[in-house]
Input
Amino acid sequence: AHGEVVRAKVGELVGLSVADSGSATPDWMVGVIRWMRIDDEGRIDAGIGLLARRSLAIGVSALDDAGNPMNDRRGILLSPLRSQESAIYSSLLTPGLFEREPASIQLTLPVDPHRWPSSACALTVNGAGIMESAGAYLRFALPPLDLPDEGLDSGEAEAPLAAVHSG
Output
């Protein structure tokens, strides 16, 4: 942005999206600034370490041993970089002030534009382990998520596809 003051520092998270991707919902990639340098003309170059090609903003709460929420925060689910299926999330970003060793974590997910059919849901995750602690954020490794199947059994899910292919 020419003429605008932009502040950033090494270690900060950044969201990246392809301009005019043609999709109603843009795909947001998430990365972290790994290095920055200023050239002789005052231009800034930055190296971004990509954390995920797809992400989903969610609500997240650490739960105590009795299952009671300790704090409500915003979080970001990240898909693995090498995943073939975009809607499977393998890690979670939270603010640095989030509980580091929660008994479990409650995730509140909106409708997922990368998974169809999809509806808003809440689920509890046990066994999340901290992967990275970078001060401003924490990154947790997640076990496989038990996302709802929207109540469709395999026969009902295939019926609309058969109708599309036959006509």
